[in-house]
Sequence to fold (391 residues):
Amino acid sequence: MLTALLAAAEGVETPALQPVAGVTLLEHQVRRLVAAGVERLVLLTGEWPVTLAAPLGRLRADHIAIDAVRTLADAADRLAASPRVLLVAEGCLPDRALLDRLAAAAVPTIATLPDAPEHQDWERIDAQARWAGVALIDGSRVIEAASMLGEWDPVSTLLRRAVQEGAGRLMLDAPPLLAMDAGSAAAAEAGIIRGTREAHEGWAARWIEAPLVEWSLPLLFPRSIEPLWPGALAALLALGGGLAAVAGLRWGMLVPLLAAALLRLIGRRLSAVQARALPHAQIIARAGDAGLVLASLGLGLGLMRDTGQWGWLLLGALLPLEMMLTALQRRANAWGGGVGEPAWLARGDELPWTLLPVAVVGGWKAGLAGLCGYAAATLAFQLRRGWRLMR
Fold:
């Protein structure tokens, strides 16, 4: 079982309670540790700050229990039987990759940084290295440290004992995020936002939506917006846009679909920032798909009424069929080992952004025909890719 020991300095000024991206730093630390497979968390608090109750309550609401203790001796009672304990420094926010590497290392192991001027905020452990804020130790060592602690800092004491035992070292190229005060918390917040960028995003999400989302997220953090709310609003707007298309309101269709795409990304990024699963993510995604299907059929139906040509309705039905076949082939390609898709491929969120300039310049007929051609080219690419993987 993997356990974690975190420290929070005494008093209300502890970095553990520093606001970062809408919640406390402690909540970010805990959620990242849980996502990395930590099953038990022990928080060393010293004198209990009253303000600690709120973040612990939010964590308990998500079924994350933390054992808060006042002294290292109390922590030792809980950690003695744990052969693998992740020690996390106050203010340090390690990413998932670092936690995974350290959890797989031999005990004891210390994450380190070169002793360079740019790393002066990190604790020096010898003439060549500084501690990067995370270490893997044996729980039995906590008992030994508690028995001789005196007035020493508990985390530094555990770290020094690991160094004296010749602990292995995991040298890092770049330090983890560190939030010790308001200034460093703002830098950590920007780093957290950058870290939630999705590698599989298409061109619209990457170059149009992402800048807007990253501008809006800091405005949402002080309001403690839950990821569910932008996701739920996106679902309603997508369905509303689809119904507007059936009613013949073409701009009433496109504008809500564009807003829904932005809100879906905001919900996903908020969820990633908080290291929490997006509630009802499948329902939100299905509502977005249903809105696009209704919009395509509604646009084709309206153009058929305008021109008297049933082929437009056929195109309106063909577009969602092409996208469905593309999604199935994409999954098959992923199972076959295909990775690294080009950004230009058609995805659900790309369709409204593609339709916008084409409809403005060439009209709605050109817009629907262009979307069908775009989806057909994407499907052909995926089929060709699947054939190559099979071979």
